[in-house]
Amino acid sequence: MTFKIVETTVSSAVVTAGTFTVAYPENTSSGTFAGGNKHAAWVDTHQYLYTAAAGEISLSFGASEITVTYNGSTTIAAGSRINAQLDILGSDDQAPGAFELPIATVPLDVYLIDLGAPVTADPNGVAESQTVTGVGTAFDLDGILVSGGEAIMDAPRALVGAWTNTAVITITGEDVYGNVMVEVSASGTGHTGTKAFKKVTEVTTSATITGASVGTLDVLGLPAYIGSAAYVLAELEDGAAAVAGTLVLGVNTTPTGTTGDVRGTYDPNTGADGSTSFKLLVVLPDPANRGIDQFAG
Q: Which of 14, 70, 89, 223 has its CA 20 to 30 A from that of 156?
């Protein structure tokens, strides 16, 4: 990652959900910061670094200035000095061997993402068809993927659910890096998830439901943040060029229970069967970027 620092002093107090503006650093514009998600703001009177990844601030890049929305709970006093740290998508310019690049130039490295040979999707691999009674009641995790009370996927995958009676289900688990994550369905009788779970630890319901099951889809989670479809150079199936699958870009705004995956997902054109391997040839401006923080409830 590469950062630009700009300082401002707020002339009036900034309350929760209030805003302040900062000027663009020299030789930059809104396009300079497209795709960056590690923005932060140091407030001297708080002695605290507020980050966009944690949802403590959000930034809007306008034509002539940057508007920062403050989501902290403690009012920023008038006269406070703020240093805004603006993230430019790309490799760490402080890494060993780094050198000064020309203006408006970002290094890009090519990587091969190996998604393995995932097993066939199982629509009830997390929870077999069952009745779940009462608000907040947990499903019995009894699918074929369950061991020790937790469903563990062979690869991070999106989930699917079906049930009778209108309800909202809440799925809690972990991503491929062990970070807690939560997904919430819409109110209805089914759910097609967009977040890639490596582990499911709990599924609860908002109402009594019958015939309820939860399992996996062919939608595979990416290990690194992909912010543009143009960064995917090739899709490979068993080492050969593949028919295009479906790429969903990583979420770059404060996540909720209903937003997509923070790194992105890939649904191969060929269904997973436990033997077909899938790989993506990609450019990663920031290979260490694992996306913004997961929504954990």
A: 89
